[in-house]
């Protein structure tokens, strides 16, 4: 099956759609976008101030975007941490990292408290290196994470790695406990139900065409509210005036048929860690609750003019490329059937730094630009948006969260087309070439090509 939003829905069924906005309305807070960011924000705001009238407006259905399509890595990575360390000092970035570590447990705890069964399993994150250059990057990465206060992580050699999981050519790996596997669609579906049960109003099939201070405009009417929060991530470019704010980057995934016991025995992976590598065009994977491998990476990275979606349909070449990665990792799966393929968009700011902001002058807020790390980050962003709204409305003062370095961060916009398209395609073509070179000519030095691409793209 190709498209159909994602495998997670093929498995669990698409949700029944809620009623669209019936006409003009008012609220205390209006949230645009029914993904994790919007729903977690509604959840925490309503929990902290039950009297608030909160409306969520979603263009399709809650979980239509990346929140219903991702790789299900609930982990402590946050886009932009190293840059925030440069801008605000090391200690500020350590606070941000600690908040992210706690966020993994916060999501697990709330899912449990709200009775959301999202197939959660906290086995940590295992990142493997399959070449000397990747191993050098892995060690540097491990040292950096230790410096940000992650004392409980571990570095493994080839033998210890194989005891956990048998990835062909693995020369080492690094493990952190701050990660869990989940079924993303089950989380977003459960979260929407929990939010609704608290008394938040959700209107689906309601696209917001324009956001301006105190107004969210839709074809069916306008919702007026003192606070309008934009939680539209990879779809942001379609909103009036936001074309060059965050670039919609594609990520694609495949899922195999359920593997047999013998196949699992050959691979190992009993700890069900989320699995990644250190390639420049990296892969990410999980062992699903029903015994498949779901694996993702970059396909066609970006469509001209910031076009976003066709319900997850994925090009054949991308499916083949991901299948090649699967078989390169696990040669014993050469004959296994790939049963599902899908894609989604994530939001990439010009400096690759996630942000959360409330503009006190206008009441407009937003959170996003998570790049590929939003499953946990959205929860931290939402609790921060809650604190910012409560602070602005005089219900509370500053909190630890409102003082984190990613709050209120500003960045310039992306270049106009065709430079945007050329830049992103050039960057990923270079990453793939760099990965191929590192595989063919093993060296401990990372390919210089990738470093140049990083610099041009504004990543480092
Ligand atoms: C294939 C893929 C794999 C990924 N894997 C991982 C992973 O394993 N771990 C990880 O941490 N992160 C991962 N990510 C990123 C992560 O999924 C996202 O960062 C996160 O889901 C973002 O949530 P969100 O609510 O901000 O955005 P979204 O989930 O995209 O939600 C935005 C919502 O807003 C709605 N919307 C947009 N525009 C409008 C409008 N104008 N009016 C009304 N509604 C609108 C959309 O329909 C959508 O439902 C992955 C992303 C993709 C695409």
Features:
binds flavin-adenine dinucleotide, 460 residues, 8-stranded mixed beta sheet, 6-stranded mixed beta sheet, 12 helices, FAD/NAD(P)-binding domain, alpha/beta
Summarize the structure.
This protein is α/β, with parallel strands linked by helices and 460 residues long. It has helices at residues 7-12, 36-48, 81-88, 90-113, 132-147, 158-164, 184-197, 261-267, 316-329, 377-392, 419-440, 448-457; strands at residues 25-26, 29-32, 54-57, 73-75, 125-129, 154-157, 172-176, 179-181, 201-203, 210-212, 215-218, 221-224, 227-230, 247-256, 274-277, 284-287, 293-297, 338-348, 355-359, 364-368.
Shape descriptor reads globular
CATH class of the largest domain: Alpha Beta
CATH superfamily of the largest domain: D-Amino Acid Oxidase, subunit A, domain 2
Largest beta sheet: what is the strand line-up? Answer: 6-7-5-15-16-17-14-18
**How much of the polypeptide forms β-strand, as a percent range?**
15-25%
Radius of gyration using CA atoms only: 21 Å
Query: How many structural domains are formed by the residues?
Result: 2
Structural category is alpha/beta
Separation, N- and C-terminal Cα atoms: 38 Å
GO cellular component, one term: cytoplasm
InterPro entries: FAD-dep_OxRdtase (IPR006076), FAD/NAD-bd_sf (IPR036188)
Pfam families: DAO
Protein name: FAD-dependent oxidoreductase
Write the layout of secondary structure elements.
Layout: H1 7-12, E1 25-26, E2 29-32, H2 36-48, E3 54-57, E4 73-75, H3 81-88, H4 90-113, E5 125-129, H5 132-147, E6 154-157, H6 158-164, E7 172-176, E8 179-181, H7 184-197, E9 201-203, E10 210-212, E11 215-218, E12 221-224, E13 227-230, E14 247-256, H8 261-267, E15 274-277, E16 284-287, E17 293-297, H9 316-329, E18 338-348, E19 355-359, E20 364-368, H10 377-392, H11 419-440, H12 448-457
Parallel strand pairs: 1-12, 2-3, 2-13, 3-9, 5-15, 13-20
Antiparallel strand pairs: 4-8, 5-7, 6-7, 10-11, 11-12, 14-17, 14-18, 15-16, 16-17, 19-20
Helix pairs in contact: 2-7, 2-10, 3-4, 11-12
The structure holds flavin-adenine dinucleotide (FAD).
């Amino acid at each position: 099956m190709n498209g159909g939003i994602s495998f997670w829905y093929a498995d669990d069924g698409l949700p029944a759609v809620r009623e669209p906005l019936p006409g003009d309305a008012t609220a205390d807070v209006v949230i645009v976008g029914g993904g994790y960011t919007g729903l977690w924000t509604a959840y925490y705001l309503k929990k902290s101030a039950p009297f608030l009238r909160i409306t969520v407006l979603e263009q399709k259905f809650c979980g239509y975007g990346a929140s219903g399509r991702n790789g299900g890595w609930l982990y402590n990575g946050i886009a932009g941490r190293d840059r925030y360390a440069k801008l605000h000092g090391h200690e500020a970035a350590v606070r941000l990292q600690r908040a992210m570590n706690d966020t993994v447990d916060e999501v697990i705890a709330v899912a449990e408290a709200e009775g959301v069964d999202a197939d959660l399993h906290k086995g940590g994150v295992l990142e493997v290196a399959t070449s000397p250059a990747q191993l050098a990057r892995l060690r540097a990465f491990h040292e950096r994470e230790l410096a940000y206060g992650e004392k409980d992580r571990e570095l493994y050699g080839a033998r210890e790695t194989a005891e956990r999981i048998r990835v062909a050519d693995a020369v080492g790996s690094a493990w952190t406990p701050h990660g869990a596997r989940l079924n993303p669609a089950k989380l977003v579906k459960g979260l929407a139900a929990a939010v609704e049960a608290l008394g938040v109003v959700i209107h689906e099939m309601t696209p917001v065409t324009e956001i301006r201070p105190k107004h969210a405009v839709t074809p069916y009417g306008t919702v007026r509210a003192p606070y309008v929060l934009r939680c539209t991530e990879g779809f942001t470019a379609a909103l009036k005036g936001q074309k060059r704010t965050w670039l919609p980057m594609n990520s694609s995934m495949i899922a195999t048929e359920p593997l047999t016991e013998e196949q699992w025995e050959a691979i190992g992976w009993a700890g069900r860690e989320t699995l990644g590598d250190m390639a420049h065009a990296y892969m990410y994977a999980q062992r699903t609750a029903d015994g498949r491998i779901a694996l993702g990476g970059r396909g066609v990275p970006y469509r001209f003019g910031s076009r976003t979606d066709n319900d997850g349909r994925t090009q054949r070449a991308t499916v083949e490329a991901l299948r090649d990665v699967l078989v390169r990792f696990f040669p014993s799966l050469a004959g296994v059937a790939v049963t599902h393929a899908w894609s989604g968009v994530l939001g990439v700011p010009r400096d690759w730094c996630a942000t959360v902001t409330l503009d006190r002058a206008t009441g407009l807020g937003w959170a996003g630009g998570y790049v590929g790390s939003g499953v946990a980050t959205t929860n931290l962003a939402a609790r921060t948006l809650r604190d910012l709204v409560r602070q602005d409305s005089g219900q509370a003062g500053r909190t630890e969260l409102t003082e984190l370095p990613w709050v209120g961060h500003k960045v310039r916009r992306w270049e106009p087309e065709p430079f945007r398209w050329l830049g992103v395609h050039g960057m990923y073509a270079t990453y793939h070439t760099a990965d191929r070179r590192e595989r063919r000519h093993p060296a401990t030095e990372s390919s210089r090509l990738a470093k140049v691409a990083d610099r041009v793209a504004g990543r480092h």
